[in-house]
Amino acid sequence: MLVVNAARQPGKVRRRSRIGLAVAGGGPIGGIYEVGALRALDEAIDGLDMNALDAYVGVSSGAFVAAALANRLDTAEMCRVFITGDSDQFKIRPEDFVRPALYEYVRRLASVPRMLFGWFAEFARHPFDLSVADSLLRIGSMLPTGLFDNEAIERFLREAFTSHGRSNDFRTLARKLYIIAVELDSGQIVRFGGPGHDAVPISRAIEASAALPGLYPPVLIDGKHYVDGALRRTLHASVALDAGADLVFAINPLVPIDVSHVHGKGTPGSLIDGGLPAVLSQTFRTLLQSRMQASMPKYESRYSGADLLLLEPDTDDAEMFFTNVFSFAHRERLAEHAYQKTRSDLRARRELLAPLLKRHRLSLREDVLDDERRTLFSGLLLKPPRRSQATSRLHRTLDDLDLALERKPARAGKAAQPRRSPKSTSRSSTRAPA
After folding, report:
1. What is the signed CA dihedral for 208, 289, 23, 263, rounded to 10 degrees?
2. How many CB atoms lie within 10 A of CB 391?
3. Alpha-carbon gap, residue 228 to 187, rounded angstroms
4. 3-state secondary structure 395-434
5. What is the pLDDT along the chain (434 residues), one digit of tens a residue?
6. Is the dihedral of CA 154, 157, 161, 167 positive or negative?
7. What distance in Å separates the CA atoms of residue 50 and residue 72, rounded to the nearest whole number?
8. Can you tell me the distance from the alpha carbon of 303 to that of 26, in angstroms, rounded to the nearest whole number?
9. How far apart are CA 25 and CA 60, in angstroms?
10. Which of 74, 73, 91, 71 shows the shortest CA–CA distance to 83?
11. CA 324 to chain centre
12. Is the dihedral of CA 186, 187, 188, 189 positive or negative?
């Protein structure tokens, strides 16, 4: 489903519109859906360079995606990294997401004797004052704060963002990147990458943003504990709008399902048949969706001069709902599903999108939208030549020079040039993606 929130009061035409991207969470499968959708946007919109946007905002698994794009990993290479697994630059390791949090288990076990001693001492002093609820709370404090170890994820990201000329430092990126997390003890939203929070390594910020309570332990940064950024808001598109974006592309991979509209083999008549996992999944998705719907009118009133395009699955999308959010087994099928769904949404709304995109010197590629034989993997057949670390750094230096020249104000009397398309005559179209 494509939700178009067009500007009520479009701003003055600029030489170059400022474009942002906001990517919500959704676990590994949500990230895979986002990669498929982004690949479709990249191919179908002429003039849109997904690696040269003005602001990237990521939450939870969306933080992986946003940080990769800001670090100049293009959508084709992202597909090779996250979907097909045949990237020459680095390999994603699914086992990193489900390693037991052994240190957390040991730490909690080590605290058991002290807690038991305190409990018995209190019972001896006040044998009739302790209730069952008090006892349960004490037992609960002995349980681990997360099942899986997110330190392995941070190490993988640190390695990925410190190789091939990339950066693990917000301050050295050519584009603004914001990773959203929530401080556990205050419940306040923190924008890593923003003022006062840009010295934190990108890999550490992503680890904090993806620390979903119960699954991953809170992440300690500068004496404070942080958890999943989706606890306060679903998308945080306002961060890109606050950064001055005139157009924001947003992707939310998790929506509740309406089983009454789903017809297919193996589909339950009621989610209750799926037990606790199905009930919890529907509850979580409904909470996220309700907050999203509550935010949309605020975007329209507060940012009346900006356009927002929101992509998310339909409410009858059984593929997205009934796939295990921590399963990588069906990632190619799911990414293809997201790719085709995004192309279909763009095709269905092309008449509405055409004038909106034109304001930002963008346009839809009809050949991409109408090609019935096109697949996500069509554009991945021609693999770029393998690069050394030195070659990758050189190409990134040239990209930085291109960006600086592109953003240089036009000389007096010279006509403004349209936003350069990476699909036509740009330097990046003749160089293999890094």
Report:
1. 120
2. 15
3. 11
4. HHHHHHHHHHHHHCCCCCCCCCCCCCCCCCCCHHHCCCCC
5. 898 888 887 766 567 899 999 999 888 889 999 999 999 999 999 999 999 999 999 999 999 999 999 999 999 999 998 888 888 877 777 777 777 777 776 776 776 676 666 666 666 666 666 565 555 556 666 677 778 888 888 998 999 899 888 999 999 999 999 999 999 999 999 999 999 999 999 999 999 999 998 889 999 999 999 999 888 888 899 999 999 999 999 999 999 999 888 866 566 678 898 888 889 889 988 988 888 888 888 888 899 899 999 999 999 898 888 876 555 668 889 999 999 999 999 999 999 999 999 999 999 999 999 999 999 998 887 666 555 555 555 555 556 566 556 555 544 444 444 444 445 433 333 333 33
6. negative
7. 9
8. 26
9. 5
10. 91
11. 18
12. positive
Q: Other CB atoms closer than 10 Å to residue 199's CB: what's the count? A: 10
Q: For residue 71, give both structure tokens.
A: 């670090």
- 3-class DSSP state of 108: helix
Question: pTM here?
Answer: 0.82
Structure tokens at 19: 């474009």
Is residue 3 within 8 Å of residue 237, measured between CB atoms?
A: no
d(CA 423, CA 429): 6
Bridge partners (DSSP) listed for residue 169: 201
Tokens 């979903």, located at residue? 212
Vertex 228 angle, CA 223 and 230, to 5°: 135
How far is it, in rounded angstroms, from Cα 239 to Cα 231?
16
Which residue has 């997390």 as its token pair? 181
